[in-house]
Amino acid sequence: MAKHRMWRLLALLFAFSLVAAACGGGDDDADGAGETETETTAAASEDEAMEEDEDEGATGALGGAAAEEDIEAAVAGETEEEEMTEDEMAEDEMAEEEMMIDRSTLEGIFDEAAARRAKAVATLTEKIEAGEYGVGDDGILRGPEGFEIDMNACPADWSDTSGITDSQIRIGHTTAQSGNLAAYGNIAYGWENYFNWINENDPITVDGSARDLTLIVKDDAYVAAQTIEFVDELIEAENVFSILTLGSPNTLAVYDKINAECIPHPFVMTGHPAWGDPVNHPWTTIMQMSYSTESILWGAWIKENLADLLPVKVAGLVMDNDFGLAYELGFEEWAGANPDVVSEYLPVRHDPAAPTLTNEVTTILAFEPDVFISMTAGNPCLLAIQEAGQSGLYDDINAKGGALFTPSVCKGIEAYMKPAGEFADNWWIIGGGSKDSTDPKFVDEPFMSFVNANLEAGGLDSKVSLYAIGYTYGYPYGEALRIAADLPGGLNRTNFILAVRSIDVYHPMLLDGIITQLNGNADAYFVEGSDFSQFDATVQTWNQVGDVVDVNGKSTNCAWDKDDGGCR
After folding, report:
1. How many CB atoms lie within 10 A of CB 340?
2. Distance from C-alpha of 103 to C-alpha of 445, rounded to nearest angstrom
């Protein structure tokens, strides 16, 4: 019932975001000097024709809002769950039997995965053989829910089987293995560890022979200019089948080119809402929860839990790049639509490479916020927790009954929470549903035990949870490759992107209740839900508070405006 209540609250908050977006969709520029939403709307009202031309279809900074027809009014108190009909219950039971669901064992999890793949292959094959999906005589690749790619626009030397050799399936990856966000580079080692297990135990076959999944990793140090150079190298010299990028500014710098080159670019390692754009960037897909959804969930939590303090003053510590901007604009838009919840919102930006955050936290301390939200990533997440504790901000906010949030991208206990010591206690997170492989609650689960055993066997320290996050990304990637390999024509780029855009898996690295699906142009976000969790520094665990909130299939697509920010 708590889940139903929170979902209704979330739906109303999504409604507010849609109302704000429909009024004009103006966003601050990267330096924070742009017009406010109200000012933009007032200016646009002077020329209604221009407003209609420029803002038709705009969704503002909060791409990822629920569809209008699915919005319900929030209600006070608890509501009863809707009862299923006998036919619906029977259908659920049949589906469970078909999937052979037994998640209490590793064998059961793998059996379910195989059943889901078989179902996907059967559905896609039927559509391909009927001429509804696949590349038609007109050169258009078609898939579910209106998904299309004009293959006529691909480079003249493009090949559907690039990167597939007699022995390998070559996958390019740009990531940060040096610099201030180097900890995220550990994800690549975990991803490779999972693929090594696949190669040795259950390899993917092409034309009847096993091929090794091979990662070609490039360390861009989280510098977008370096990412551009390495992507060029992966395309021109490394003969890759697909590409995976890490980082919002890095991916924004290259996803136009990757799509123009018709190279699969799925499950990117960033939650920027721009990756939910199947029309303009059909080769790129998102893996984790959108930062826009996270921004709304921060607001939902504040409204639900800080009623006695409302309206509150909120301060955000924002990484000064495209990643931080997505958070900043998203929460700014939500706060502007909810003045009864947020009276003032102060974003304070920091250099991504800053060795300390003392000056920024001092500015925030003087603002005297009721809520502090860290909108940053990597080592600055740890610095933010430490600075909040040492400056007195942590004590001030807790004394008034407020809250401090760390972002979903910094849920790792070993990397970000444990080193902060007692100052990490009671911090909140909208965690995106991910499980930490070092958390005592999960270490004995069958798949988590499998992950940690594989990491140790591969010479990786299982106490570093970011290695295990490599399995979070690698698992759906591997499932999509297997589906594509079993489609008519076998493994190739077009079959792979069809498999990705149709994927429906149970993800054992995520909390129960988080649905992981993509569905062509209709559902472009793989994860659309989250837990609300609070950190216990004594036990070193994230304690989930309340039920998981999930709005699977309710997010709007996002054509990101790289000049002004926001979805159009």
Report:
1. 8
2. 9
What's residue 73's pLDDT? 27
Q: Report how far residue 411's alpha carbon sits from residue 120's, in angstroms, rounded to the nearest whole number.
A: 32
Q: Are 144 and 522 in contact (CB under 8 A)?
A: yes
- The span from the CA of 331 to the CA of 57, in Å, is 20
Token pair 């009927």 in the structure block, residue: 130
Token pair for 143: 């898939």
pLDDT of residue 566: 84
Q: How far apart are CA 527 and CA 79, in angstroms?
A: 25
Read off the pLDDT of each residue in 83-109 and give the average, rounded to a whole number: 69
Token pair of 174 as six digits: 């740009």
Q: What is the DSSP pairing of strand 371-375 with strand 403-406?
A: parallel
Task: Say which range, 72-81, 315-324, 375-384, 486-495, has the weakest mean pLDDT.
Answer: 72-81
Which pTM was predicted? 0.85
Contacts of 434 (CB under 8 A, 6+ apart): 288, 408, 411, 469, 472, 509, 510, 511
85, exposed or middle or buried, with CB in 10 Å at 0-12, 13-18, 19+? exposed
User: Which pLDDT score, from 0 to 100, does residue 535 have?
Assistant: 97
What is the CA 96 to chain-centroid distance, rounded? 27
Give the per-residue pLDDT at 89: 52
CB 367 within 8 A of CB 398: no
Tell me how many degrees the CA angle 136-142-147 measures, rounded to the nearest 5.
160
Closest CA to 152 of 233, 43, 262: 262
Structure tokens at 119: 């179902």
Cα Rg of the chain (Å, integer): 23
pLDDT for 84 beyond 80: no
The tokens describing 93, both together, are 């039971």
Cα diameter, the chain: 68
Average pLDDT over the chain reads: 86
Question: What is the pairing mode between strands 148-150 and 140-142?
Answer: antiparallel
Of 553, 525, 58, give the one whose Cα is nearest residue 333: 58
In the structure, what pLDDT confidence band is assigned to residue 32 with cuts at 50, 70 and 90? very low
With beta carbons less than 8 A apart as the criterion, state whether 508 and 502 touch: no
Give tens-digit pLDDT for 367-411.
999 999 999 999 999 999 999 999 999 999 999 999 999 999 999
Amino acid at 47: D
Nearest to 522 by CA among 121, 22, 25, 143: 143
